[in-house]
Amino acid sequence: MVTLGNCVHTRTLVLPRLADLFKKQSYPGAANTVPGQQWGPLTVSAGAFESLEKRIFEAYLEAKSDPLVGTIEPSMYLGHFDWGEPFPMPTDVRPYAKEAIGNMIGVHAEVHRVSPSLVQRVLSQITETVAEELARLLLCVSHFSKEGGLQARADVRAVQEALGPYVSLTA
Prior knowledge:
Helices cover 70% and strands 0% of the residues. By secondary structure, it is mainly alpha-helical. It comes from Ladona fulva (Scarce chaser dragonfly). This is Exocyst complex component 2.
């Protein structure tokens, strides 16, 4: 996460500032031949940082998303839970929803501590992955009892409320 934050900082702040300083000091080769473009070598460097940033971002997302998503299904069916069986009316969300929310809080804290500007970008991607997994699992249920439907709705709403700022149209 620190490396990702450093890449973003270098690409968005340091390289443009260097380009401006080179131009102000009339550094040879710093003059633009195409209006609106940065100095050539710095443009190449910015592209390299952008490519590195993308690879680091994808690796981080995979490292955080896979374990988080991997815990949802086993936790959802803990105790041989059956959505189609009648059971007492739901009064709380199931542990899998609480666990998913708790894990997302952990990711938020980790990202915010290192680079607050990346929180939206990281959490929106992970939220989309979690939403896809929840949708996949709930679509696999062949039959919901009345109580099972209410429970599923309560669980989904709890996750939506907790992750609301990071929910995209896709999620």
